[in-house]
Design a protein that fits this description.
Layout lengths: L3 H20 L6 H8 L3 H7 L3 H21 L8 H22 L1 H9 L1 H28 L8 H25 L6 H17 L1
Helix pairs in contact: 1-2, 1-4, 4-7, 5-7, 5-8, 5-9, 7-8
Length: about 200
């Protein structure tokens, strides 16, 4: 059961979304967030020291929603192709939606990309873990040849890095190559074929 503190904290994070959408990151203030969440400034500062902390919580909340959706759409019963395709499509669809919704934030983050990368780097391990799981399932079902744990980890890291590169294109430069999903599917096919021999 959610505690009162967790509930209030989530109210603030949800309210911050409207603030960041309207003002972007640079122009948003703690006063804006307090007003949007219908909380006093003292309540806001009880939960968050500054705007950066609120923004970090906002990013992590969005990320956790995507991860939860990903977990709900991968399965040991699916082929590695389907699992990787579901992971990739959910991630990119989510990023495209965010980039279309939070245009002011994107402008601000282009000036401070390091801040965004530090945030995302801290939560990337969970994505690597998802891909490792998909590869391990494929090994267990003999869809692909047996590979070492070290190689599974490296391969998962490489696949996440590929989609992260596109993430930067989408999020920072709002570039959506027309055939982006097809190109990523092609990369998946190459990798799966290589792992089958």
């Amino acid at each position: 059961m959610e505690s009162k503190e967790d509930f209030v904290r989530m109210q603030i994070i949800e309210a911050s979304k409207t603030v960041f959408k309207k003002y972007g990151f640079k122009k948003a203030t703690m006063n804006h967030i307090a007003k949007a969440s219908d909380k006093g400034r003292s309540t806001l500062y009880y939960y968050f020291q500054n705007k950066n902390e609120v923004f970090e919580a906002f990013v992590k909340t969005e990320y956790n929603r995507r991860i939860e959706k990903t977990f709900n759409n991968i399965s040991k019963e699916f082929s590695i192709e389907k699992n990787l395709s579901n992971y990739r499509n959910i991630k990119l669809d989510h990023l495209i939606t965010l980039s279309n919704t939070y245009t002011y934030i994107l402008t601000d983050l282009k000036e401070n990309a390091i801040f965004l990368y530090q945030l995302l780097d801290g939560i990337r391990a969970e994505e690597v873990s998802i891909i490792e799981k998909c590869i391990q399932w494929a090994v267990e079902k003999q869809e692909i040849k047996s590979i070492s744990k070290k190689d599974i980890n490296f391969l998962a890291f490489a696949l996440v890095t590929v989609t992260d590169s596109l993430e930067k294109e989408i999020f920072l430069y709002q570039r959506f190559p027309k055939d982006m999903f097809d190109q990523l599917e092609w990369i998946n096919q190459l990798m799966i074929k290589a792992l089958q021999h």
